[in-house]
Design goal:
The protein has six helices and 15 strands. With 265 residues, the chain is α/β, with parallel strands linked by helices. It has a single domain, classed as 4-Layer Sandwich (Purple Acid Phosphatase, chain A, domain 2). The strands form four sheets. The protein has a six-stranded mixed sheet with strand order 6-7-8-9-11-10, with helices on one face. The protein has a five-stranded mixed sheet with strand order 5-4-1-14-15, with no helix packed on it. It binds fe (ii) ion (FE2).
Length: 265
């Protein structure tokens, strides 16, 4: 009998506002997020869980977190999250857990486990995994040494080949890579923050980023720029034998007005 892989959907950087009519660089982030959720509903097949990899909100408001939960409820699967630089951790943890969003940070599955870390450096755009996060990571990896591991946090631990974004990544990425080098079952690292699709391999570990559900950043560009690409999500299939399959799906078109002149966000 063949068993089906576990299907994870990663969404990221929804940047919702307290006021649902507000836009970010010409994109109504609520509308764009809803368009991606509707697309997932129709196109993503049977899903086992959803991970939101940070920047759920643009303004850290209670209303934005509540609306995210409300919208994702329709997909009828558990949702997990990590904070991004724009999120308000205090508000996030006051609102969640709320159906269907869980507060759990270690998801243990058959043959696999997923570890969710907070890379937010309070008051900063760049990220950092502090001692408590690294200790937690090590504890999870030591507890399930035979499980394939997926680690998720908001800030990229690799160069994106964009000077402005590389200044805003995970500042102690070396420490992170050093720590996980002792754990051969670390299979993949997932992150948001960079608002673009990317795949890289570091010391045998797959590193994946995902498009935002709203605005997209120009790739391979040293200065900030927007890319005229539709929003989307990443699907990840986890097979029993440790094989990971993944891809990005985008909705049909850009939501809102594409602001070519944008110089930052
Ligand atoms: Fe973001």
């Amino acid at each position: 009998m063949t068993t089906h892989p576990l299907r994870i959907i990663q969404i990221s950087d929804s940047h919702l506002f307290a006021d649902a009519s507000q836009s970010l660089l010409g994109v109504n982030t609520e509308e764009s997020f809803q368009a991606v959720v509707n697309f997932i509903k129709n196109a993503a097949g049977k899903i086992d869980l959803i991970i939101h990899s940070g920047d759920l909100s643009q303004d850290g408001s209670k209303e934005s977190y509540e609306r995210i939960a409300q919208a994702l409820k329709e997909l009828q699967v558990p949702v997990y999250y990590i904070p991004g630089n724009h999120d308000n951790v205090r508000t996030l943890t006051a609102v969640y857990p709320i159906e269907p969003v869980s507060g759990h940070k270690h998801i243990v599955l058959k043959d696999w486990h997923i570890i969710l870390l907070n890379s937010q450096k309070p008051g900063c755009v760049e990220g950092f995994l502090d001692a408590s996060q690294l200790t937690y990571l090590q504890h999870c990896l030591q507890t399930y040494p035979e499980h394939q591991a997926i680690i998720v946090f908001h800030h990229q631990p690799v160069s994106m080949g964009c000077a402005w974004l590389d200044n805003l990544g995970l500042k102690n990425a070396d420490e992170f890579w050093q720590l996980i080098s002792g754990y051969p079952k670390v299979n993949a690292v997932l992150y948001g923050h960079v608002h673009q699709e990317n795949m890289q391999m570091v010391n045998g570990v797959k590193c994946y980023s995902v498009p935002s559900t709203c605005i997209q950043f120009e790739r391979d560009c040293d200065e900030f720029g927007l890319a005229h690409l539709p929003p989307g999500y990443r699907w990840i299939d986890l097979h029993e034998d440790g094989f990971l399959e993944t891809g990005v799906q985008r909705i049909e078109k850009y939501v809102g007005h594409f602001d070519k002149s944008a110089k930052g966000y």
